[in-house]
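Could someone model guanosine-5'-triphosphate with this protein?
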Amino acid sequence: MQNSESSFEMTEHAHDHLDIPQRAANPEVNDWVREIAALTKPSRIVWCDGSQAEIDALTAEMVDAGTLIKLNEELRPGSYLARSDAGDVARVESRTYICSEKEEDAGPTNNWRAPAEMKAELSGLFDGSMRGRPMYVVPFAMGPLGGAITQYGVEITDSPYVVLSMALMTRSGDGALEHLTPGRDWVKALHSVGFPLEFEDGASRPDVAWPHNESKYITHFPETREIISYGSGYGGNALLGKKCFALRIASAMGHDEGWMAEHMLLIQVTSPEGKTYTLTGAFPSATGKTNFAMMKPKLDGWKVETLGDDIVWMRKAADGRLNAINPEFGFFGVAPGTGYDTNPVAMETITTNTIFTNVALTDDGDVWWEGMTDEAPAHLIDWQGNDWTPESGTKAAHPNARFTVRASQCPTLSPAWEAPDGVPVDAILFGGRRASNVPLVFESKDWKHGCFLGATLASEQTAAAEGPVGILRRDPFAMQPFAGYHMADYWGHWLKTGADLGDKAPRIFQVNWFRKDQDGTFLWPGFGENVRAVKWIIDRLENRADSIESPIGQLPVTSDIDISGLDGFDPAALDEIFTVDPASWLVEVGVTREYFDSIGEKVPATLYTELDAVHAALDAA
Ligand code: GTP
Ligand code: MN
Ligand code: MN
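Reply:
Sure, complex below.
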């Protein structure tokens, strides 16, 4: 940890005219705030305390500035719509960098820049980048305050939208500041939209509703635990506690310190016998984590409670088991496709006090997006502020439109979600979007084979009808865009963790809700019916269900999958859902070998051994 080092070369002393309150007990925090203020030259400095009064005042300012539109108080109390610029709507992976000292430590799946070179360039961009704007200092915690797995950070930003979002998505403000005591590790997270309102020559310009810069940099310095983000005001680019800290930096910290930061959901499932189990699931982006985390199970007597929908941190507890927390404080979920028929719990969560970004506005001042209702309203204002009708031929909401809301509003939130030291994990699920090959659910042979399943996680780009194995978009452990160091080292860390946990390790399963028939129709109804796969997983944990050994893993006995009361479901489809076709799997094994080779020499030999075993079993089948 090298927080005492400067993030930037100091170019001048702090402005004499700036009142820089030294609010942190940790002098490193105060020094850093002073250093950044000297560089970015804001109009004033605001230490955010996280109070409701502060949130209300910021919200009012943003409504005045046109950044937020207040929604109808009767229909959507306490809620607002933000429309981002069309050039700032999603994470920008091409502008995302892992700046480790050595290029080989970033690995083939990340963009890399040398830290000194990157900082020199950023230093130029940040010089005066906050002129004419306030600079907000947001202390935050990832995880319950004081918890054993929790980490702390400070985000400096010139975006009030980011401050408000951080207040919903993290435990931010004075509570976190109290834990930033001298000597404690913390992460520096610096953000600017890159749209100063004043210039060195005295010129000025008016603000716009969504300030940003055409030039964007989302940079991570894993060795010094720093994040520097420039030019974007959007989601994962700007709320630096989320993907940047809780996944990219935290994965590197976990590798060094012996814990894990994963792109996972976290739930607890209670069976009709009243026994509760903790499950995590790594599914790639847009593959159903939020849906699964908020599942309303369609089998009588089962209960699913939500702990997290996107990020999980896990650490070995004193009793030798792997404990998990959700480090976040809210949900930043995809809006399109969310409706009362698919995810009623999400719909109930966002009835009040929610920030919507890039959804459509109804004539009565509420929100709408594709998939919220079967029929679109006759008239809307689309996500770009234009009139829209069903005849427009465009999407009313941006496909990556999001809702931002505190987790506490989720009706299925588990009381254990704030357990300071986390909850012990019973099972880990890996799931891609696979139209072919991958069965609905099966179990790994052991932890090593489970790591093989994680490392080979992928989604298909083409529909099943186009061939048995399409082009696989690899997303190992759902971490392709988020592993903050070499992917092969990350796989090695998973293998090591399992060896360390021994027989206390969670069991590992693979699931796939997306298998299709010849005509391209989903074979499995999905959503709340996925509890039927969960039931089999729990039957395995309780040694109530046998498994059939197959070349790819331990398959269910088809009759052990409970399809009672599943209206209109043809039991014959179950056979198709569990088919393991050796010919198309052999093709996949060949593709996987090429993929491992592309990751390079550091791929653990164990994973090749697992691949060879699958290959040999398929040859023998
Ligand atoms: P990020 O928040 O971007 O990390 O994604 P996520 O994993 O949370 O994905 P999300 O839950 O938002 O799901 C995205 C898409 O998956 C939506 O289009 C859903 O309709 C679809 N989906 C989720 N669960 C199921 C399922 O069980 N079956 C089918 N067919 N589709 C599903
Ligand atoms: Mn995600
Ligand atoms: Mn999600």
